[in-house]
Each structure stands twice: as C-alpha cells, then as structure tokens.
C-alpha cells in the first residue's frame, strides 16, 4: 500500500509532452497543497515518432481543462480523421485503403446482430470499400476546411470522430506554459537519478549538486529511462519477432496542396514504410524500416525517389519494440516511452500513453490517495494486456499479400503470436467481434482499438475474406431480409441461403 494523503511533493523525471501532461494531471489530482516538480532532461524523447494524434487525445485535453481552440492555435494543430494506407496490398499496382475514425451517424453501424454489423459485412462480401459508408468522407476527400468539418460534425450525421495532427515541439511548449501557470515548478538538469529508501520507495530525485525529496515519482524520461529502467530493471517483453522494424529516420517534406490534410498517410516501402503528417506550416514525415533488410543510404535513396526531390534528415533512432512487464513499483510509475515503444503505426504509442495517464488518475482519485498493492498489480496487468493488444493490432497491418521483397517475404513466413494467430483464424470465418478485443483490456482500462478499427484494416488486407462475410450473413434471421429491412443488405444476400443455429 502507498498512502499519499499527506504527500508534499510529486517529482516527474522528464518534461516533453508526457511529462508535462502528467504534471498538469497530477497538479489537478493532488491540489495546490502538493508541489509538482518537473525535472526537464535533454535526453527525453518525444511522445512518439510522427505527430498524428489518437482518438483519445481530445478526451485527454478536455479532462485537463485544456481549451481545444487554444490548443489548435498553440500546437499548430489541425484535424485528423484517420489514416490513408498506400501500397500495402501487394497487388503490383498502386493501391490504397482508409482507416477512418468512426463516430455517430454511420449507416453501416445502425444495426448490429449477434455481435456483427450486417451492412459492413455486406460491403465486404461484395468487395466494396468500407470508408465510403462514412458520410463525412466526401468532405475529407475534398479537403474541407476545419470550419466546414465543425459544422458537419455538429449535425451528428457525419460519422466522423475527431483527433488532431500537431507539432510536437509546439505542443510541449504549450503544455509547459499551462503547467507553470497552474503552479507546477520545473528544473533543467542534464541527468537525474532516483534515491530509494529501505522499503524500496523513491524518497528523492538526485540532480547534480541538488536533491529533491519526493513522496511520489513519475518516470517520463522517454527512451532514456532514468527512473524505472535504471533503478528497478523490470523484465522486458520484446516484439522484435513480431514487429521487425527497428530503425527510423525523420524529415520534413515540402507541403502539397493536393494532399489530404486531415489524414495521416502511411506508405509501404521496400523494407518498411513512411508516414506523412500534414501540419499547418509543413509536412512532418519519416520512415520506419528493418535494419536487417536495408541501411540508411538505401532507405533515403528510396525516399528521395518517391518524393522526387532531396530530403534532409532531422533525427535518427534505433529501437527495440516491446514493453516493461512492470511499470508501477511502490511509489514510482512510468509513462509513455519510459514503459515501452512501438513504431508510430496507427498512433498506437500515443493512444497507449493517454490511457496510462487516464488510469493513473483514476486509480489515485478513486483510492483517495491510498492505493493498495493489488490495485498497483491490476494497473500493471492491464498495462501489459493493452501492450499485447497494440502488438497484435499493429501486426495485422503487415498481414498483407505482399512478398515482393525480402522484408515482406520474411514477414509472410514469420511465426505469429498465439493470440493474433487465434484471431486471424477466426477472421477467416467471420468479421472481428467485440469479444475478440475484450482480452486486451482489464481493470477499468479502455480498448485502444475497437471493433470497427480491426474491421477497417482486416477487410481491405483480405484477412477477412469475402467468403467469411458471406458465411456471417447467412446466419441472419429471415426477418432481416424481408419487410423490416428490405434494403439492409442491398442485394448481397441474393446468393446466400440462411441457415438455422446461432440465431435467437
């Protein structure tokens, strides 16, 4: 048990987006009687590669009383409605599919029977695109302004769920200004160490020549991992055998008027993929790849050939995808890249970090500052389940028919993790269901990727074949094809004979 009811100081190792969000959150949770101090260290790595937010970004901002209009101006933000995937299908010709954030007003989600969506299954059965059932896609395709999008969303019929692209440096500066205005203090330090007492609790943060006593500590030091990783050395679960990319190079692109500015673009390459995040003043981009299949010069040559002009590198990073098995130990909790790392596919790292922070707040608040050991164990267990869900969802993106390069051939022949292999076997017979993703959440945590997210990726890649959707539709009750819903399946049922069983 930890008792923080008489806490005097909370120490946060590392600034950045994660550190300052944690500071703002904990200053609100603990109140003005507790000093929240951020130790800003230059070794901090940003929230994640790229600057495309996740669907739970807006909830994070609103929960911390951060005005969205101010955020847009301060962080150079614009809307993000999802991801456009180019060249992932391996058909030998340019191809694309969309994973859009779905919200209210989607006709395909008006009906759910036995855990699946008949209209979406009908589209899959007939080989139709899924994104066209979202009414707001037309606005996305014509690059509608944010004001137009606001008006469309206000109708409740757009089918769009909003997130944001943002400039990570501007976002951090904005969060720091807010934090300082709300009473958070900060110190700059090249390095920071934690000191433990006889119980193994953090009692102080040690800087060069100065020491801060703390009652609770947060490790937001990114890949430097100055707190949890250095002091407690928890077990590491690597994703290297499942997600083979291990290196990234970032760069800026010349903005293109024709680009869809409300979508992140992810393009499959010879040994990995590139991302493009349209910002207000530029396009932030980068490439993630496997160093076993290509080196930096090969990747940059391919990037420059793709874009047709010279591209200047900004940052380079080698990484091991995976996570620490334990992230909350006694009175120290780690957040963000201090706990694990995955490539920026689908903004999964951002989504996971925001969910970590939400559940840290929930645990401290619901316990009144007194947290039993089993609640900490539950946090660690749910965190691990969530990381597993991230791993499996990202692996789904690589489950295409491509085998045109050594990288893609090795992926097609690699062993799958048991949990994903089981799901894939199910998806060969039916579309993804809610029960498939329930094992990835626990102890009050929320799923990062929902049923529609899995369908939006699995169907275009062929992981859910048309035959599986037709078999699913054959289980519909007869009344769904008759007078109650005569246009529900738009002719997809013409060759399907309903069967009995599994319908009640």
Automatic annotation (TrEMBL):
Stretches that traverse the bilayer: 12-31
GO MF term (any one): monooxygenase activity
Top-level taxon: Bacteria
Alphabetic keyword roster: Membrane, Transmembrane, Transmembrane helix
Gene3D superfamilies according to UniProt: FAD/NAD(P)-binding domain (3.50.50.60)
Signal peptide annotation: none
Entries under InterPro entries matching the protein: FAD/NAD-bd_sf, Flavin-dep_Halogenase_NPB, Flavin_halogenase, Trp_halogen
Keyword Transferase included in the entry's annotation: no
Residue positions of the active site: 80
Annotated positions binding 7-chloro-L-tryptophan: 80
Protein name (record): Tryptophan halogenase
Organism lineage: Bacteria, Pseudomonadati, Pseudomonadota, Alphaproteobacteria, Hyphomicrobiales
């Amino acid at each position: 048990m930890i008792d923080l009811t008489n806490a005097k100081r909370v120490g946060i190792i590392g600034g950045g987006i994660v550190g300052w969000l944690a500071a703002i959150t904990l200053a609100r949770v603990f109140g003005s009687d507790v000093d929240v101090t951020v130790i800003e260290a230059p070794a901090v790595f940003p929230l994640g590669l790229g600057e495309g937010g996740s669907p739970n970004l807006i909830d994070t901002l609103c929960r911390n009383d951060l005005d969205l209009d101010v955020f847009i101006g301060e962080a150079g933000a614009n809307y993000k409605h999802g991801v456009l995937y180019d060249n992932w299908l391996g058909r030998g010709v340019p191809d694309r599919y969309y994973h859009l954030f779905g919200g209210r007003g989607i006709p395909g989600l008006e009906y759910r029977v036995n855990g699946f969506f008949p209209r979406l299954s009908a589209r899959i059965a007939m080989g139709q695109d899924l994104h066209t059932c979202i009414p707001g896609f037309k606005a996305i395709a014509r690059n509608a302004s944010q004001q137009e999008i606001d008006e469309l969303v206000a109708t409740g019929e757009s089918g769009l769920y909003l997130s944001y692209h943002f400039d990570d440096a501007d976002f951090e500066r904005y969060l720091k200004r807010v934090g300082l205005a709300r009473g958070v203090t900060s110190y700059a330090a090249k390095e920071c160490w934690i000191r433990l007492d006889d119980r193994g609790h953090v009692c102080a943060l040690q800087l060069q020549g100065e020491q801060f006593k703390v009652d609770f500590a947060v490790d937001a030091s990114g890949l430097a991992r100055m707190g949890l990783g250095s002091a407690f050395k928890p077990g590491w679960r690597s994703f290297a055998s499942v997600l083979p990319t291990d290196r990234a190079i970032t760069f800026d692109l010349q903005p293109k008027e024709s680009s869809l500015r409300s979508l992140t673009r992810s393009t499959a390459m010879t040994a990995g993929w590139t991302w493009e995040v349209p910002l207000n003043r530029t396009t932030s981009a980068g490439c993630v790849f496997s160093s076993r299949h290509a080196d930096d010069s090969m990747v940059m040559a391919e990037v420059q050939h793709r874009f047709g002009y010279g591209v200047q590198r900004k940052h380079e990073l080698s990484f091991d995808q995976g996570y620490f098995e334990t992230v909350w130990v006694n009175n120290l909790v780690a957040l963000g890249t201090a706990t694990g790392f995955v490539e920026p596919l689908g903004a999964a790292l951002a989504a996971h970090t925001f969910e970590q922070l939400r559940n840290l707040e929930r645990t401290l608040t619901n316990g009144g500052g007194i947290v039993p050991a089993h609640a900490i164990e539950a946090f660690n267990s749910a965190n691990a389940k969530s990381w597993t869900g991230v791993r499996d969802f990202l692996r789904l993106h690589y489950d295409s028919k491509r085998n045109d390069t050594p990288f893609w051939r090795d992926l097609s022949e690699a062993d799958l993790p048991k949990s994903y292999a089981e799901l894939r076997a199910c998806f060969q017979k039916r579309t993804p269901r809610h029960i498939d993703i329930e094992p990835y959440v626990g102890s009050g945590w929320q799923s990062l990727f929902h049923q529609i997210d899995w369908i939006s990726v699995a169907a275009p890649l062929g992981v859910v074949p048309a035959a599986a959707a037709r078999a699913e539709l054959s289980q519909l009750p007869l009344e769904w094809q008759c007078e109650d819903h005569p246009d529900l399946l738009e002719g997809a049922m013409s060759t399907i004979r309903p069967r009995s069983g599994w319908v009640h």
